[in-house]
Amino acid sequence: MSELPNTTTQIETSAAAICSSVHAAKRSGATVGFVPTMGALHQGHLSLVEASLAECDKTVVSIFVNPTQFSPNEDLESYPRPLEQDFRLLEKLGCWVVFAPPVEEVYRQKHETTIDVGSVALPWEGASRPEHFGGVATVVLKLFQIVPADRAYFGQKDYQQTLVIQQMVADLNIPVEIRVCPIVREPDGLAMSSRNAYLLPEERAQAGQLWKSLELAESLVAEGERRVTTIREKMKNLLASSEQIELEYLAFLAQGTVREVDAIEQPTVVALAARVGRVGRVGRVGRTRLLDNHTIGMKNEGRRAEATESRERGA
User: With contact defined as beta carbons under 8 Å apart, do 22 and 150 qualify?
Assistant: First the structure.
């Protein structure tokens, strides 16, 4: 393994070497956590690393911009790759190893095998980006083989992706525990994403409406509204007030599934995808595509009621 100058975090580019190191660590009795990323790290990624550091003896973070999960018209070439900055952030946290392989170390020249996880990958993101989840599942399975960790950490922001990975792990008997960690948000509520860096200041200001729409859904449920048609319409009206937001989908899903519900009678994940930015801006290939989700329902309502009662008591 090589090391960054003046740091203690090791950097590995060889799949065989990192696999050997992880096996050796586990034989010595250490627990190993794994955080797969595409780099351009922000506090959302770092919260996953912190969760692994808290639960595991050693933490591996991969930085690999996976070409198979990008469609031909997407931002593979322009995806941000601030590798040195990422390495420094991980070294500061105390990450054990950063695995940053070249493409040919992950996909051999004649690679043809892909993973199809079935129905959980078909709607919503799967319908919008038909090649996406096949690429995600394939690279995650490969990374699990290369980095045979005890636990792997993913963010709730990519809600459907977490379901895809959990399905694959269960179906293929992969010996890794999946941890899903909460969304980390900017002060105005925008979910942290590497693609937020694409937004111009005026677009960034408009992007905060995505979270406001999810807050609106939660408020409506707290006020007693249960009909999804009503909640969806009011959310769409709010988002339509911004000419820079184009809603791609807005789904109300039974928690832990991709199944739509008609009424909020149980914890429900409200998931959305939208493009933010002015159409035709010079120098842009399309607008920035952002995802977000929020769980609403009776459990949340109970917590709000408890908080209200506490405030009224002066606690």
Answer: no
